[in-house]
Amino acid sequence: MGKSKGEMWQYFWQGAKANSSQYRAICLGCIRHHLGKVDLNDSETVTFKDEDAFKNACIAAGSVLGEKNAMIAHILGGEKLCRYASNAAAVTAKGLRKKIQDTKKRGKRERDDDSGNDEEPGDDSEPALSKRRKAVDWVEKRQTKLKVFKGISIPFSDEEEKTIHAQFTHATISANLPFQWVEDPEIIKLFLMFRSCAGSMIPSRKMLAGRLLKEEEGRVEEELKATLKDQNVTLTCDAVKDISKDSLMGVAVSAKFKPYLVDLYNATAERKDGDAVDEALGEMIDKTETNYKCTVVAVGTDNDGGMRSGRGKLGTKRPWVMTFPCGGHQGHLTGGDYFKVSPEAEEISAKATDLIGWLNNHGRVRCTFNNVQIERTGQVKSHLVANTTRWTTHLVAFLRLDDLKQSLRMAAITQREAIISAQVGAEKNFAASMALRTAAEEQLDVIEDNSFWRNLSVVIDDLEPIGYATNICQSDKARPDVVLLAFAGMFLHFRNLPPERSSVSKGMMKRLERRWAGFDQALMVTALILNPYERLDRFGPDAGANIMNVRATVVDLYSRVKSRPPPLELDPEQLEEWENKQMQQSREFSTAFLQYCSSTGPFKNWDELKSDFEKIHKEDPSIFWESMKADRALVELAEFALIIAENLRAHQKHDGLRDERQARKNHADDRIGQLLQVPRYADISQDNDQTTNQPALVTNRRKWRAEVEQWKRDAEKYDEEFGSDPNADLPLPETQGTSRQWLPRSLALLFGGAEPVTVVEESADNGRQPRRARRSVFTEEQLLMELLAQEQEDEIADDGALEGSGDEYSEN
């Protein structure tokens, strides 16, 4: 009696005889595909064997030799790959291949129990082993040629293989690697050094970019649905241009300060007017709430014309959704405002940028300055270069330049001729050598100029609050009260400038008031009031923040948030019950808020307990309000405060770069390193190089001018879209009694008061000027800038800066 068919034949149809002992095998999955009946399983496919369509499908599908290795190679991929085979076929083929590989590794030549069962049914004879090399898996063919030390030989289990494949996907996406990296011979060598069985675990490029990526996407999506379910979230959207210049719109939501990307689509063909943006935002909200079973309580966008108009229309149609502009972008525009109102600052900044570029562009000159640094301090600090995609790096670059002032001045005075000689080099042409000498002398004169350093210090003092505020506003934990205090800090800085700088003071105050007028003031002020560490303490004497005004503002915002329509499926009785519950919750909220403001009831001991609570939990209002939810009478107030505090952010940033913000310490020295974080700075700069083929570093006066002009254009465009004269006074109430409505209200009224006492110190040229203590901790920002500068160093022209300079030749 002949042997039975092998396991693989249950997934193949037996065709014509190929030779004296074997038949052709036709994959049932391929037959299903050509039949157009992909929903059938393998056994159901065979039921069509008598139909002409089945025979035609067999011809169209093609066949392989009815031998186990050939059929396995067809299913799992060898010379051909079957995309239509069933999952059962793939599992069986995988198990058989593993048996074959294990047998080869042990060095045995025995065959599986079923090894001869793939031949002609009824034939007892076994064919002679062929000496011809058979096609094997691609990875095996590649690995057999690798002559490399191999690690321990321990096979992987199926569960380990699944986990390893998932980790390959994580690593590829996290490191932004091309999918073909897994097929690089050197990568395979590396993994084999760890474990000799690693080769069989490395997925192919096609598997990594296809099945594994889809499986991981599905897993992450399910995890995201579980995370966002029943959460109050903030939705933000922003567009970026890819390498093809298409506009890609990213939609993200944040819950408990953590952002999640939920959608990404091509918006190149979409209209950008207010009506279109309003409609798009509404669709984003509905889609997010439907897919993730969450509640969108706020929407944040950029503040250009279409976005601002659409956001306003959305707030009118859906008053329960709070809307706000990007605070980080407002900080960027404030930087443009500063250089508009202070041409002197623009000129000094241009000189400083030109000096930094000169120092970095001439290696021999830089070595002379570095030697003086070593003599003075025992170390060498780099001359940091600003980046066009991150304008706050100009502040850090200027701070480093100011830090190196003494070393630079000493070198300029004691090594002047040596520096000029290093600049000129071996240039023989008289005109060229004079041009190099003149350029060097100009920069040395700048270094020796006391007024330059004094004015640079003034520019740094002005840029510091703008830079800090911008980075605060774009942090994931930029609560509305934090954004408000950041803008108030900028306003107070410029308000307190000395009288001789009154033009800059008045110009910046007016422009900051205009930025503030573009925010939802009720939202920002309510967040500050509901911060238990702040409450009403920050408001000035002219703010008019009495209990009646404050209560009216907060209750009005609460009513807006609670105005979300009831579920449509409620019957009249349920609707009445829902309305009664809303009224009861409103009464509880109002009562609890009055107790909070007057420090009575559950809050009567808060002032005494606040310092101890702060030591344990820092100054996080979310922890405070979470603890207050234990009191039933405070639930409504606590949940509303958490909606305001937890879910509103100024801008989206990449997960893992979130900044832990501590309230009421906007510019403390121990926070400088974190406040000046630059997320994916190197990546942004690399993206800039890829799309424009131009360096992102600002290394000379021309680039500085171009960048400042761009800032000015951005600020002017905003002013034009805002719809009023930038020099006109804002129509804000001047006193408490001018209007029944407390807000809107100017920053001057909210936070104005007695001016702080400034510290006066002696300047380098015996002049007297107000000066704040210089911040010195910028390690994270400086490190990123230094690394970027080193990457670009090969692109910077060296000594002479003129083609044909003789510096590269010896004097022999």
Essential attributes:
8% strand; flat; five-stranded mixed beta sheet; Nucleotidyltransferase, domain 5; 812 residues; single chain; alpha+beta; three-stranded antiparallel beta sheet
- Describe the sheet with the most strands: 5 strands, mixed
Q: Estimate the strand proportion.
A: 5-15%
Overall 3D form: flat
- Give the radius of gyration: 35 Å
Low-confidence stretches: 108-126, 136-144, 649-696, 726-740, 756-779, 790-812
User: Number of helix segments?
Assistant: 32
Give the spatial strand order of the biggest sheet: 6-5-4-7-8
Helix percentage = 40-55%
Structural class: alpha+beta
Biased composition (Acidic residues): 115-126, 791-812
Protein name: DUF659 domain-containing protein
Biased composition (Polar residues): 685-697
Biased composition (Basic and acidic residues): 99-114, 653-672
In a nutshell, what does this entry contain?
This protein has 812 residues and is of the alpha+beta class. Among the domains are: 7-135, no CATH class; 137-228, no CATH class; 233-325, Nucleotidyltransferase, domain 5, CATH 3.30.420.10.
What does this 3D model show about the protein?
The protein has 812 residues and is of the alpha+beta class. Among the domains are: 7-135, no CATH class; 137-228, no CATH class; 233-325, Nucleotidyltransferase, domain 5 (2-Layer Sandwich), CATH 3.30.420. Helices cover 54% and strands 8% of the residues. The chain has 32 helices and 12 strands. Strands 6-5-4-7-8 form a 5-stranded mixed beta sheet, sandwiched between helices. Strands 1-2-3 form a 3-stranded antiparallel beta sheet. α1 (28-35) packs across α3 and α16 crosses α18 (430-448). The longest helix has 27 residues, at 572-598. The chain is flat, with a radius of gyration of 35 Å. InterPro entries: RNaseH-like_sf. Residues 99-134, 653-697, 790-812 are annotated as: Disordered. This is DUF659 domain-containing protein.
